[in-house]
């Protein structure tokens, strides 16, 4: 291998490792409690936080995936943020009735 290829390979390896470390840090430092999830999803669904029941919650990287029940319906929601890398800040949740796709407001559709 040439010296230039070795440097490129080392840089790419360092980049991959740092990105995976960020994902791990975001997952491990998620600070969204069930009460936070209820409050945030209630706002998105137009109900009171007391009317929301968290059925399931899973954190992956910077996203928190939750299944909730509210107003007699079941919903799947994604909350982005709420970890050390986002300084605890979150974006508004994206929610959809169970069985329908989530419509992301991402500009990268």
UniProtKB/TrEMBL annotation:
Q: Which residues form the signal peptide?
A: 1-23
Read off the PROSITE patterns from this record.
PROKAR_LIPOPROTEIN
Q: Which UniProt keywords apply?
A: Signal
Instruction: Name it.
Output: Uncharacterized protein
């Amino acid at each position: 291998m040439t010296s230039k290829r070795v440097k490129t390979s080392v840089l790419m390896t360092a980049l991959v490792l740092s990105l995976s470390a960020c994902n791990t840090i975001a997952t491990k430092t998620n600070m969204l409690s069930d009460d936070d999830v209820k409050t945030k999803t209630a706002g998105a669904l137009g109900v009171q936080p007391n009317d929301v029941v968290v059925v399931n919650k899973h954190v992956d990287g910077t996203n928190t995936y939750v299944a909730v029940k509210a107003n007699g319906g079941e919903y799947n929601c994604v909350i982005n943020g709420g970890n050390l890398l986002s300084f605890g800040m979150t974006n508004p949740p994206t929610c959809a009735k169970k069985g329908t796709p989530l419509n992301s407001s991402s500009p990268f559709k």
